């Protein structure tokens, strides 16, 4: 089994999960942020941050069956979005790539031609940076979370905006339960403001929403920092979170 | 409405260019001189007359009559006096002051012409100086030059005026007749100001009127709720109506900063402070008192900020507002604290009663009874103990001292009147013998009893600091928050109980509370003990009749707490002092959260006040007795609404779930269709069910090292 990682050291790497060995390094001119394997694992999409004069971009790489045959060449490079692209994932059947980032617009690109197929509407879409994106298990819909204190549910094929979940704090991480119709939002203070507020002020919670009714059903309190990543255990019965904790001494 | 449309355009352009309008300093924008880009300035709008006369070219000239007739030697002096008066109002044109002379007597004719650069200055001068008393024999009669033409045209025959049919104005009190007996409130968030009904049955607010840029700074209700006042660069305005808010009147006062209504809504006081020409002088203060209905200026006050910032509480930058405090009922009197005096004016003639102020050496503070024409005042200690501090009650207009008490070793003093004028509590901070610290006590005056008896009250622990004090509205009790620890105590006292009719007695002390503010219900009996600021929004709803807590709750980071005028609901709000979670909550009187509304950049929440009830005390008693009968009807209505609500709620959920089911089956169908293709992408592996994997524990053996031991 192969793992792909992206790093601020301006590379993305392929790893052998069983042995932990590095298989291949893709080199970029700016930090690599988001990575995702396509259905069938023969393709991967990697996003790079804007860096100095360089704009952010979405790179598509072919993944060889045998690591020895792996090439660093990009099959396709997509450009256009302003600011950082925080997430890029594959659409159903790898026909499309879905990207979202700092300019608050969700985009759907055609993998074959590289053309921009759809963009989310400015009026109904997010108003601030989209921080996170989570796909449904069957890839038919996905959830975006944004600093505008909301999360939105979209149809992955048509980019129709289906649901909006409103909360009181900027959203840093989102996930959907594979078992029940729940959506979880994690957030709190914008990461850059974390050190200047006390933990009570940030009131960090993971909030559970009813996926269909868009209503808040509960929250898990007790986090002492803003939540930056969430994921459900695959059996859907537990979830884990990642906190960004900055210790000032 | 045109204003609103233009603003929408500006908003759209700003959005397009990515400019945040709230950050733009509009005052720093300067148009090239002479350029107005075709935009009518707001100032012009205020002064524009609706039926403008045809320009005669003399619109900026006034005629000042009733001047003293003086010989040649005194011309210069008289001219100087006139010039001094009139150049304060506007800029007199070069050679614009002409005092004609009688060719025969060589004396002035007793009138003069003054020409300004604009008709506005001339109009203002006429308004301000007409009736001005130069001395007892000479009261200025000022007219617009053009008016003479008009007056000359008056026919010699009197013709009776046309009979205009009576057009009744709108019923400005219509909101009080709401069938559902709801109350209104106004909120300001971002650039919007909105008036809404508090619909507690439906658990949400219902909009009444909304407007962007309705005010340029804040809004304020008039004391009986009839008007909503807005504040702009050129002055203030009031709005009202039967079902909506129309502009009823404007009050010109450039750069107005603060406003205050008289309690009966008859008058509006406006205040502005201006930088002096000499930076070392204090600011110049302008205060106008307008008649609310007609917009006429009844009186103005101009002077240096020093004259208005007297007493202990004046700030560095300005004055303690309101400068004029109203009293005596029916907007009869207003008074201002001065240096060694209290200036009391009456509203018949807008002059000082007895034509002079009430002289009180060293007076520090004063306060009106809320109901009677009585002033309480405080004079601090003088001359290192030679003259003790004192609190006095003075009757207006007689200026007779009704009661007085000397107080010794006083470091500070604060006066609290009970809402019906029955009691006055004076909080006195006294120095200990060593003068190193202070301890607090209360002097309690029973105003309505013969000889106004005074009672002294000390807390159980004398050294406790007083954090808050509040009388029960319309009642006989008061609450005090006291103590030095992070969680102070709250004590309740009554001025009259069954056991002690003429003596104050303690009802209870609640220990260790997270509270620093007291909010009594306007009808008494219930109180919200709130922990604001450092306590981050703790709320305790307490029943003072039963002396028990009804509910404890929290509105995290709440900055404001306000009861509705009926005492049925409590609003708590988080304003833009904090960056996040701005908005307001509505609670029932006993602490149940009814609904909450989030609004970013939240600035104000104000309940619309109600005028006092028109019911006689007898009628009120009858209703209280038969409450069960009356409440049955409302309970039935409430039941209906709540069932309707659940039905609506259920319907909404059903339709949402149906829509979702449709989407899910659509997606399932597509997923099935694409199944073959997916398998191909995975090189023929049918691993759609990859999501369902088991975690298996696998034992892996790894050969780390091989050593051979050879037995020798």
TrEMBL record, chain A:
Q: Which UniProt keywords apply?
A: Initiation factor, Protein biosynthesis
Look up the domain of life of the source.
Eukaryota
Protein source organism = Citrus sinensis (Sweet orange)
The molecule here is called: Eukaryotic translation initiation factor 3 subunit I
UniProtKB/TrEMBL annotation, chain B:
GO CC, alphabetical: eukaryotic 43S preinitiation complex; eukaryotic 48S preinitiation complex; eukaryotic translation initiation factor 3 complex
**Biased segments, Acidic residues type:** 686-712
GO annotation terms (biological process) = formation of cytoplasmic translation initiation complex; translational initiation
Q: Where in the cell is it found?
A: Cytoplasm
Task: List each copy of the RRM domain by range.
Answer: 60-147
Q: Composition bias, kind Basic and acidic residues: at what positions?
A: 647-657, 675-685
Describe, as the record does, how this protein assembles with itself and its partners: Component of the eukaryotic translation initiation factor 3 (eIF-3) complex.
Q: What is this protein called?
A: Eukaryotic translation initiation factor 3 subunit B
Q: What is the phylogenetic placement of the source species in the record? A: Eukaryota, Viridiplantae, Streptophyta, Embryophyta, Tracheophyta
